[in-house]
Amino acid sequence: MKRKLAAVAVLSATALLTGVIQVSTSAAQASPATPSPQAQAAEQHAAVLAVASGQAGPLAKALGLGDQEQLVAKDAVVDRDGTRHLRFERTYAGLPVIGGDLVVHQKADGAVKSVNKAVSARIALPSVTPEVPADQAAAQATGAVKATVGVTLDADQSPLTGVHRTGTAELVVWAADGNPRLAYRTTVEGERADGTPSSQVLVTDAATGQVLSTHEKVQTAAGTGNGVFVGQVPLTTAESGGRYQLKDDSRGGQSTADMRNGTSGSGSLFANTSNRFGDGTTANRESAAVDAQFGAATTWDFYKNTFGRNGIRNDGVGALSRVHYGSNYVNAFWSDDCFCMSYGDGSGNAAPLTELDVAGHEMTHGVTAATANLNYEGESGGLNEATSDIMGTMVEWYSNLPSNPPNYQIGELINLNGNGTPLRYMDQPSKDGQSADYWDANVGSLDVHFSSGVANHFFYLLAEGSGAKTINGFSYDSPTYDNSSLAGIGRDKAAQIWYKALTTYFTSTTDYAGARAGTLSAAADLYGSGSTEYNAVAATWTAVNVN
Ligand SMILES: [Zn+2]
Questions:
Q1: Is 361 a catalytic site residue?
Q2: What are 441-459's pLDDT values in tens digits?
Q3: Is 362 noted as a catalytic residue in this protein?
């Protein structure tokens, strides 16, 4: 709704994306009544994995592996041109081979193009009977962890609990250093002195007990945050040199930095030694950062678990969030140029704009830029804005935070109007005094944050239906242009339809008539032409005067 936001968003929404290949899971062949794009993607993956499994035997022969060796399919990726990349683990006499993994690259017709092996050494062991017994190996591994890694084991702290955190030693073939030999792999679980969980995996020589390799499986730490709007939340952080960073390697490495009220550069990554961030007040610079980092994590999880989308560009890369951006800056924006989110501190630098639906809204601009790339002007601009409001709202429903009960209002906690009212209303957009409830010939000449009203209203009606009702403690009374009475198909189905339309049917110039056609195509793909959902999409567009 703010001019500044519009100005910045124009830049970002129209920024040229180069080299981004869209591999949307919802592009999968859909048949009527297919459950979800996610299920389809899982089905596709299972099918190609089955192909890899079927080829394990012949490929092992073709690669000249020994009689004792077998390939086990682990993963498979198929390019758009049909090229297959089949990933295998290896066993030797039934034992896992560490460093035995390889990837076979095949043309679409199955012809092998090339092979990547982790190690090229041949495996030929005189025996697979270990000299060191397994229980002795496990004790050695535990001792090594205590001596070298400084892990405090639970059993040591509280032997009476009976919790034995040392795993059993598993016999393996160690080939990773190119000198294959019999070894044990032992997992030793515990906690570091500061409470951070630890899971050390050790490989020890089965003849000598020598430690061949050790690595920490817990590469992310479990931090906690206390945000301005999100309240107390868990955070996945990264440990480096005894400090914990607001950086989430389990979600594409997305991180949050302090701009210290500047407007250029990447700021400084939030880090401390306690792994606890913020105290809920704006006086603490970390509190807004907690909101931002949690908002990014929730938006990531929402897209992944709802649509199978792996990050904003669907490439597994997480974005940077910049907080304390500018001075008295009353706005937030997404930029494709820095692939980053920025949040102002608001009026008096005391009212950060780090609310969850704002985070979801802004990062959805990145998703739109990477997909339909709806032009940020005219009716397509309204659809761009509405897409962000719709998905921002869905992120709020997804997280279901007690401190921020989900609803169909936008920016209801940041109080930008100064009187406690939300920025926008989806059930009846005109309640903000400027947004359009229904399409008319002039709607494209409105600011994109007001022409979005038609699509926001469509989404609310499609999800919840018309008329007065109370949902999750919020009251709504959604009208229709044609005085029709609509039942709603639920927000989850409505979101699936919108996302599929955005990622497969909408283009840069889609207008409201095009949005009707695109969402009908999406509904037909997902639920069948003439299905309840399909008919609801048609009736709901009519109810906002899009015919
Ligand atoms: Zn926006």
A1: no
A2: 999 999 999 999 999 999 9
A3: yes
